[in-house]
Amino acid sequence: MPVPVSQAATVASYVLKQKLSGRKHYPLVMMLEPLFRCNLACEGCGKIQFPDHILKKRVSAEKALAAAEECGAPMVSIAGGEPLIHPEIQEIVEGLIKQGRYIYFCTNALLLERALKKFKPNKQLSFSVHMDGLKEEHDQSVCRDGTYEIALSAIRKAVDMGFRVTTNTTLFNTANPERVRQFFDEMMEVGVEGMMLSPGYAYEKAPKQDIFLGRTLTKALFKKILGDAKKGWRFNHSASFMAFLRGDINYECTPWGNPTYNVFGWQKPCYLLADGYVKTFKELIDTTEWEKYGRAGKGTDERCLNCMVHCGHEATAVNDTFSPMGLVRFLKAAGNFRRTAVLSAEEEELLASQPAYEGAHSCASSSSEPSGRDELMEAMASSRGQSEVKTGEEPISRN
C-alpha cells in the first residue's frame, strides 16, 4: 500500500462520517499556500505572476493552523510558491501533526536536502517532490538546468533518513510516453513511496501557453503511459482516478474537495481558479456558487472545460468509492489497471500530432538565477528581506 494503514483508515473513517451525516460539500484535502514566492519560474505555472508586494506576504503559523482546524480536512497539502522559504514552516508542520493531520509537503526540493534537519520523520509527513519527468524534461519544465540532479539527491537523502517521499508530476503535450515510463522506473529505484500524476491546468498567465492538454489528448496520453503498467509502480492515487485519466470513468469536478487557503484568505472556488476570497471556511462553502463550475454545471465556466487535474477530481473518485456502484467501479478499475493499452486510430493520430521530444533544450540557460545549492540558499536568504498544436478539446453541450 503506497500510504500508511493509519492514513488510509483515518481518511476512510472521515469520509464515512461525512456520508452518514448527509454532508455533500465536505473537504478531503486542504490546500495551504502559506506564500506565493518561489525560487523557480516554471513554464506552466500560474502562481508566479503576482507583483512583488504580494510575493512578500506570508500566512503566519498561527493563521495557517487556525485555518486547518476550521476546515477540518484530514489531509493538508502545503504548496506555494516554495514552502521551504517560509520562515515559520517548521512550526506549521509541527502544528499540523499535533492536530492529527496527514501532510503532503510540496517542494521543488532545491532547498530540501539542507532543510531536512528542521524536521523529524513522521508517518503523518510526506515530502511531495515536484518532478516533471527525467532530467531533460524536468529541467526544461522548471526552466533551470541542474534542478533534476539536486532534487534527486534530496530525495535519496530524505529516504535514507526515514522520511516518507512522494513525487508530484505534471504532464503537458510534450510528454513522451516511453520516457515517462522510464521516469516511473527511476523514481521506484530511489525509493519513493508513491507517485502523483496530473495533466497540466491551462493557467491563463502561465509563461508558456502552447503546452496544455485538452481532455481527449489527456485520455490518449495517459492510456498510452499507463497501459501495461508495471507491477513495481506505486501511485498515490485511487484506482478510480487513474481510470478517469485514461477515460474509463467519467467524473465531474468537486472543487470543494480541495479548498484553498492562502495569503488572501479562502479562495473561491478552488486551487486553480481565483474568483474572490472570503474570511472563513464556512463562508466559502455557503456563498460559493458551486453549480457554476465543472463541465456539467449550469453556466459552465470556460476555464473548467478541459480540466482533469487531481485537485479537482481525486476527491470525486474517493467519494464515489464509498457508494455501492462506486465500489464496483473502483474494483473494476483496480482489476483493469495493468491491462494492455488499446488506442483508437484517432487517439494515435492525436498523439502523433503533438510536439516531438527532441532531447535537452532547456529554457533554463536563459535564467539569471543561480542553480547550485549553496548559491541558491544564499540568494533566497538575501531575498527574504525584500506554437499552435491540436489539444483534443471536447465540445460540451449547454442547456
Automatic annotation (TrEMBL):
> What PROSITE patterns does the record point to?
RADICAL_SAM (PS51918)
Q: Spell out the Pfam families in the cross-references.
A: DUF3463, Radical_SAM
Question: For the Radical SAM core domain, which residue ranges apply?
Answer: 20-228
Q: By its UniProt entry, which InterPro entries does this protein fall under?
A: Aldolase_TIM (IPR013785), DUF3463 (IPR022563), Elp3/MiaA/NifB-like_rSAM (IPR006638), Hopanoid_synth-assoc_rSAM_HpnH (IPR017833), Radical_SAM_PqqE_MftC-like (IPR050377), rSAM (IPR007197), rSAM_sf (IPR058240)
Superkingdom of this entry's organism?
Answer: Bacteria
CDD domains documented for this protein: Radical_SAM
Q: Where is this region: Disordered?
A: 353-399
Which cofactor(s) does the record list? [4Fe-4S] cluster
| TM annotation in the entry | none
Which organism was this protein described from?
Answer: Cerasicoccus arenae
For this UniProt record, the keywords arranged alphabetically read as follows: Iron, Iron-sulfur, Metal-binding, S-adenosyl-L-methionine
The protein depicted here goes by the name Hopanoid biosynthesis associated radical SAM protein HpnH
Residue ranges, compositional bias (Basic and acidic residues) = 390-399
Please provide, alphabetically and separated by semicolons, the GO molecular function terms listed in this UniProt record. catalytic activity; iron-sulfur cluster binding; metal ion binding
